UniProtKB/TrEMBL annotation:
SUPFAM superfamilies according to UniProt: Ribonuclease H-like, RNA-binding domain, RBD
Gene Ontology terms, MF aspect: exonuclease activity; RNA binding
Keywords: Exonuclease, Hydrolase, Nuclease, RNA-binding
GO cellular component: nucleus
Domain of life assignment: Eukaryota
Gene: REXO5
Protein name: RNA exonuclease 5
RRM domain ranges (all copies): 471-545, 566-644
Alphabetical list of Pfam families matching this protein: RNase_T, RRM_1
Entry-linked PANTHER family: RNA EXONUCLEASE 5, RNA EXONUCLEASE REXO1 / RECO3 FAMILY MEMBER-RELATED
PROSITE patterns per record: RRM (PS50102)
Organism, scientific name: Eudyptes sclateri (Erect-crested penguin)
Length: 713
């Protein structure tokens, strides 16, 4: 949280998980600016870095997201002041990996110190088996037909499919000839502008397998342009004025140009085909070809630089060049097919993505070597990507980093300026010394007695149990012969249901419903309590347990959380609606900034709900009024203020799907021990929050302050 709000992070929803390398990028650039090859982070932006007075990192030793949400009400200052919140991926050696030693390092002896540390770019053969590319394709080289998307993959990734209801009126390319490994490849890319109708094509480029541009045409959209998106599309009002070509003209030309066994290649090609309103049966999507974990995707700009050594989408240019992008996607597919998955995996793209050396390596190769040489050398002699600790770099520039922590804490080999024994003493030293340092790491701890593994297991079980109760509602009573399908349909309009069971122990039947998101359960309580469902006037309530006695207070605080400011939840959507459909439906809402359509993290299927983020809080309030009674494609919408930001939604899903079963007696003992110490723990956490508040308030304006819950592993 930067006190002058110059930190901008454009992550929302499922994107709010960051790695230690991404955090490293942020802290290094904040501390060093453009010195020592530091560059703007890839995932967020710091404006006017030279105006930063300092960087303060507060580490809450061995505390995790579990602690934050278990003691959410106690972390009063932390949740109200820090506007940006992200899930941090686990790390075996947290501080070491964060401050430059590399996540794969083995502990080194004191004599070796920090300066001799390094991390290899090329993964070991055992690591290759875990690479998502190897898991998906295996290690052997294959022909191009092995990399074309199956019909199921096309459906899952929102490609226009012949005969599907959403593609009525789309033009089929009629390229029905059977594909072989020698079928011709064509690169395709479009640029779109936002019109009253939605996203419409304004420029189309098609390149052949030799990279020759066959089509590079401006297109006049049907509807009035609302936003030219010139920064990305490169399209201006002046450019489109003399244009006569319309979408049907382009469709006809493309249909004539493509051979009957053509394979189209593009990066997130589904968006281009949807905008072109065309269906093509055989595609290679480079955003899916270069597979990553958990459904994430590499950007085309990064892949072009890392794999081909090419700079595209340069900031000096006005917008993207679709011919350049089409050619880059095509060359990436050719590279993948020719070299095979094993060679691609050896590039270790995840490492390259988070290493500032990438720019230097790519620029040198692009400047001094022809492409064939460049690719071969990259395969045979990958760059050595060691990450020097930027705390050392700070000392070289004459700045002295401050490291404060208790004597029992391990700074993983980092030099400590001072050692203290209690959080109070650490705070006192921090208040005195932080103003004298440009980079400080302050580490607080709850103490070993509160982070023992058996207590953590009990704590985890309590949080899981509380979340389950908050996600669960009971509805009834119903008539003996009530229609369960009608009940499921009505309650399903509030959001995705995880489970539904009939309670028969009561005089009249009730239904127990567990939802996947907090908003859905709350919406059901608010909108269906006292309503007539399946012919009965029913009561809707959460289970009455000790864990949910403070549920109303918690719901109110979550609603007021700064992360949920200007965010609303909308349910009742048909699952057939795409993100583009929803963008179009909600485009009339004032100040709409982002739309997040959650997906099941296991199956990848989208949910019947979405989150809308607005630039202003009042616009979100107004939108709730506007949406009341709205019907989209025959489905009536329900909405309310958001309760769970993206990372919390993801975490709830993980908590619900992790194995929480324990041996009965063991768990009972753990819960007993936890109850004895929980009151003390609450007081400790509250005190810790006050320490952070005091330290934060003492910071100079323009200080970047980051609080980390690193967890145990």
């Amino acid at each position: 949280q930067e006190k002058s709000s110059r930190l901008s992070a454009a992550l929302f929803g499922e994107d709010c998980e960051i790695s230690h390398d991404q955090l490293y990028e942020l802290l290094k650039y904040a501390a060093l600016g453009k010195c020592h090859n530091a560059t703007q982070p890839s995932w967020c932006r710091i404006y006017h870095q030279s105006h930063l007075a300092g960087v303060v990192v507060i580490v809450l030793h061995e505390m995790s997201q579990l602690h934050f949400y278990k003691f959410y009400l106690q972390f009063k200052h932390l949740r109200r002041v820090f506007r940006h919140r992200f899930t941090l991926t686990p790390s075996a050696n947290f501080l070491a990996s964060l401050y430059g030693e590399g996540a794969n390092l083995k502990p080194q002896n004191t004599a070796q110190g920090l300066t001799s540390t390094s991390s290899e770019c090329i993964p070991k053969s055992s690591d290759l088996q875990c690479d998502p590319i190897i898991r998906k394709y295996g290690e052997k080289k294959r022909g191009l037909t092995s990399y074309t998307l199956t019909l199921e993959e096309q459906k899952k990734n929102d490609y226009p499919i012949k005969g599907s209801p959403g593609c009525k009126g789309y033009i089929y390319t009629e390229c029905d000839q059977q594909r072989t490994d020698s079928s011709p490849l064509f690169g395709l890319d479009c640029e779109m502008c936002l019109t009253a109708k939605g996203n419409e094509v304004t420029r189309v480029s098609l390149v052949d397998a030799q990279g020759q541009c066959l089509l590079n045409e401006l297109v006049k959209p049907e509807s009035t342009v609302v936003n030219y998106r010139t920064r990305f599309s490169g399209i201006t009002k002046k450019m489109l004025l003399p244009v006569k070509t319309r979408l049907p003209d382009i469709q006809t030309r493309l249909k004539k140009m493509l051979p009957h066994d053509a394979v189209l290649v593009g990066h997130s090609l589904n968006a281009d085909l949807q905008a072109l309103e065309m269906i093509h049966p055989s595609v290679i999507d480079t955003s899916l070809l270069f597979a990553r974990n958990e459904g994430r995707r590499f950007k085309l700009k990064f892949l072009a630089k890392a794999v081909l050594g090419k700079e595209i989408q340069c900031e000096q240019k006005l917008g993207h060049d679709p011919a350049e992008d089409a050619r880059a996607a095509l060359e990436l597919a050719q590279f993948f097919i020719e070299q095979g998955p094993a060679k691609v995996a050896e590039l270790n793209l995840e490492m390259l993505l988070t290493t500032e050396k990438l720019a230097e390596v790519s620029q040198n190769k692009a400047a001094f070597q022809p492409q064939e040489c460049r690719v071969q050398k990259q395969l045979n002699e990958p760059p050595h990507l060691s990450k020097p600790c930027f705390l050392d770099c700070l000392q070289v520039t004459g700045q002295k980093p401050l490291l404060l922590g208790g004597q029992d804490l391990d700074f993983s080999g980092l030099r400590q300026s001072n050692l203290s024994t209690s959080n109070k003493q650490i705070l006192q030293r921090a208040l005195e010394d932080v103003p004298l340092s440009t980079f400080s790491i302050i580490q607080f701890s709850l103490g070993p007695e509160y982070i023992a593994s058996h207590l953590l297991a009990g704590l985890c079980e309590k949080v899981r149990s509380k979340l389950t109760d908050m996600l669960t509602i009971y509805a009834g009573p119903f008539e003996e012969s009530f229609c369960l399908k009608s009940v499921k349909k009505e309650f399903g309009r509030c959001g995705p249901i995880q489970s539904l069971t009939v309670v028969t122990e009561t005089y009249q039947p009730y239904v127990c419903i567990q939802y996947e998101v907090l908003e859905a359960a709350q919406l059901a309580v608010e909108s269906l309590n006292g309503a007539e469902v399946a012919g009965s006037c029913i009561k809707v309530q959460r289970p009455v347990t000790a864990a949910v006695l403070d549920c109303d207070v918690l719901i109110k605080e979550l609603e007021l959380d700064v992360e949920n400011e200007g965010v609303i939840y909308v349910a009742g959507l048909k699952k057939s609606l795409t993100e583009m459909d929803l963008q179009e439906e909600f485009s009339q809402l004032k100040d709409l900034e982002t739309l997040f359509l959650p997906k099941d993290l296991q199956s990848g299927k989208q949910r019947n709900c979405c989150f809308l983020k607005f630039q202003k809080s009042q616009s979100a309030v107004d939108a709730l009024e506007v949406i009341k009674g709205w019907t989209v494609k025959g489905s009536k919408l329900r909405s309310r203020h958001a309760l769970a930001s993206g990372h919390l939604w993801r975490w709830i899903w993980q908590m619900n799907h992790s194995n929480g079963k324990q041996g009965g007696n063991i768990l009972y003992e753990k819960m007993e021990q936890l109850s004895d110490s929980e009151q003390d723990l609450r007081k400790k956490v509250k005190k810790l929050d006050q320490h952070i508040k005091k330290l934060y308030r003492s910071l100079q304006n323009n200080t970047l302050c980051v609080v980390l819950f690193p967890g145990v592993n």
